Amino acid sequence: MDPTLPVSLSHRLGLYMRLVRLDKPIGILLLVWPTLWALWAASNGEPSLYLVFAFVMGTALMRSAGCGINDYFDRDVDLHVERTRDRVLTSGLISGREALGVTLVLTLLALLLILPMNRLVWALSVVAVFLSVTYPKFKRFFAIPQAYLGIAFGFGIPMAYAAVLETVPLEGWIMLAANIFWAIAYDTEYAMVDRPDDLKLGLRTSAVTFGKWDVAAVGACYAVTLALLGVVGAMLDYGWAYAAGLAGAAAIAVRHLWWIRHRDRAACFRAFLHNTWFGFSVFAGLFVQTTLLG
Fold first, then answer.
1. Quick check: 221 and 271 in contact, CB under 8 A?
2. What's the gap between Cα 91 and its chain centre?
3. Distance separating alpha carbons of residues 145 and 43, to the nearest angstrom
4. Which residues contact 169 (CB under 8 A, 6 or more apart)?
5. pLDDT score of 1
6. For the chain, which end, N or C, has fewer CB atoms within 10 Å of the first or last residue's CB respectively?
7. Of 77, 79, 88, whose CA–CA distance to 24 is shortest?
8. Distance CA 22, CA 113 (A)
9. Left if phi > 0, otherwise alpha if psi is -120 to 50, otherwise beta: which for 144?
């Protein structure tokens, strides 16, 4: 037996982990928080342990699969962007076929998790996979691809409602709309980091589209996000705890706007990473309102 095999396998797995960004969990967190909002709202604070496990694990798997397919489609473009030129696929450390294989395996594992659920969840999962696969191409021609990203990143919301209630009520779709605006806000902060490279390459991002109004647009998107989440709270007759969660998220959003006001790359990236606390603040309010206060 080749004594180098375990080392080679370990090294390969490490490259695959880098492909799907397991070393950078912020993307998973930005998908998990909205999914948990929906699970807690749909179940009135009492989701089953299996649903929590399935949706957290499924979200992590699908986000990882999304990274794989995104890097496959962007492998030539990423060569010309400072932040992405060293990615494992772009730099040739793994092949395109390997990236597609990893993506397929992760997607199938995610789909296995929903097998015990109802047919509406199955149907919505097909839409979720379609969104994940088409986003890398969609962002090539759409002026604000972050809106499409928000749908893809937030599709755990209608799926969670469907898993609990076997339907998606109006508040579920409003929550998805809130997530779309939140994604535009945080991904514009992310896009502001790459704007010089994107302008050279002629790529479309919200940071390029908004231009000098980028900071104002981010602020407006945060405001719409919070307003829509407030509507959800009013529809479900939530009280002070949920309102406190939204107030905390609003304070975090103001902090982000302060950080990005000079459009410094490092500050914009810091604001992007800090958005996990925005999502957590909303969830904390929901958790106290539904699970602790009933």
1. no
2. 25
3. 32
4. 161
5. 35
6. N
7. 88
8. 20
9. beta
